Each structure stands twice: as structure tokens, then as C-alpha cells.
Amino acid sequence: MADELVHYEVRRGVATITLDSPHNRNALSARLRRELTSCLRTAIDDDAVRVVVLTHTGPVFCSGMDLKEAAGADAERQGVNEFPAILERLWTSPKPVVAKLAGPARAGGVGLVAACDIAVAADTATFAFSEVRIGVVPAVISVTVLPRLLPRAAHELFLTGETFAADRAAAIGLINSAVPADRLDAEVDRYTGMLALGAPGALAATKRMLQQPRPAELGPAFADMLELSARHFGGPEGQEGIAAFVGKRKPSWVPAD
Q1: 150 contact partners, CB below 8 Å, separation of at least 6
Q2: Sorted alphabetically, which InterPro entries does this protein's record hold (predicted)?
């Protein structure tokens, strides 16, 4: 529909979800949150989708919560209760999610970036945790942001609200890559192409493994990882991958050219 705030398209196994509310800098309005939630659900439930890309139209990726809606509103209208579900859906998606930023991200928008597995930005993009400057706390987004950031950088940037550039965002772990704007599409294609080579079940299991807390004792952790490894070596994906390697062919899950 022409008046959608979030667009959805699938091409060769890549689902592209596009925030399209440039009039308010792609702010997380109630309507945009609903449409984004629906698109994420569709992508995750579609077996044909291998990778999800979250991107935007207009000069700004996402400016955070829609403050016009939040004025005088209760917690539910502000999205305090709803927004965590979006971040969790991105974080726990069994399909890898790539954030593609041609422009700035602020506050909740940075939370979206951090919830994705991989984030690529134009080197002109900027970032800021601007919450403290309007008297609020970056509490909800901290759940996805803090695991990504170096601790010293987290203290500095959360407390000062300072705007920082894409190269610093890459240096502190918030994004994976900052490239010239004319190379942004190619860099995202490079990542999605690599991700599409992974087996769906193996990618989902690897994501779950990466999200587990680090164990206090190594013995039980090695036992759990040995069981996980054996299960996938002996499973249908593992056996297909081994057969494809031996036969010098692509495994069945790799999209056709």
C-alpha cells in the first residue's frame, strides 16, 4: 500500500524491511511500530527468507520514539511496553538481521541497530544516545546496546549524549562497517551474500549459542557444546554440507544464481 510506513519485499531469499516515515525522521510512532512488528513476524515465519535487512528511506535511519505521541502519554502509548518486543524479535530472530543505515540513528533507533546481528552504515551517518538531554533514561535500549559496546564508551556516550560518527561506532562495536555512501549497497550485499551461504538451522543454532551468557565453569560448557556440535554434524544439514563439500558442489540451501 502506498501509505504504508514500513515496506516489505523479498528477493532471492533476502527480506528487506524499509522504514518509510521521513516526515518525522522515521520516528517510532505507534503505527510504525505495529507495521514493523508485522513485517518482522512475516519474515521470520517465511521459510523462503534466509536473511533480513532493516533499512530506511529519507535522510535519517530512525530518530527514536515519536516524542509528539509521548507528550503526556502513559507508558503503553510511549511504547515502553511495546518497543522491547520489537528489539527482542530482532535479537532472537532465527534468521540473521542486517541493519543498513544511510543516515543518522538516535536513541531508540540506535537500539534497533544494536539488536541486529550485523550493522553497516554510510561513513556520514551519526549516532547519539540523546535520552539524558531530554530528561529520560536509555533504559530499554541498554538491553541490546550494552552487549555491543566497550564499557568505557558506554559510560561516556550514555551519560553525555554526545553525537559520534560512524567510524567511532565501528571502533566501539556498535556497527560492523562504515563505508562511503556509494559503497553502502555493495557492502550490505557482501554480508547478505555470505549469510545466505550458511545453513538455516545452523545459523539459528549459532545465534542462540552466541547469545548465551559466558559460563562460570568450563567443564559443563564443553559438554553442552560437544552435544550441540555432534547434533549438527549428524543432522541433515551437516550431512548435506559434508556431501556437498566432498562432491565439490553447493549445498541445497544456497540460493540459486
Answers
A1: 172, 173
A2: ClpP/crotonase-like_dom_sf, Enoyl-CoA_hydra/iso, Enoyl-CoA_hydra_C, Enoyl-CoA_Hydratase/Isomerase
Alpha helices in the chain (DSSP H): 30-45, 67-70, 75-78, 83-92, 108-115, 139-145, 151-160, 166-171, 184-196, 200-210, 218-234, 236-246
| Active-site residue, selected from the candidate residues 131, 156, 162, 237 | 131
d(CA 247, CA 184): 35
pTM of the model: 0.91
Mean pLDDT per 10-residue section of the chain, whose length is 257 residues:
88 96 95 96 96 98 88 55 91 97 97 98 98 93 95 97 98 98 98 96 94 83 84 88 90 85
At 103, the amino acid letter reads G
Cα dihedral sign, 131-18-117-201: positive
Cell numbers 530472530 correspond to what residue?
93
Residues across the chain: 257
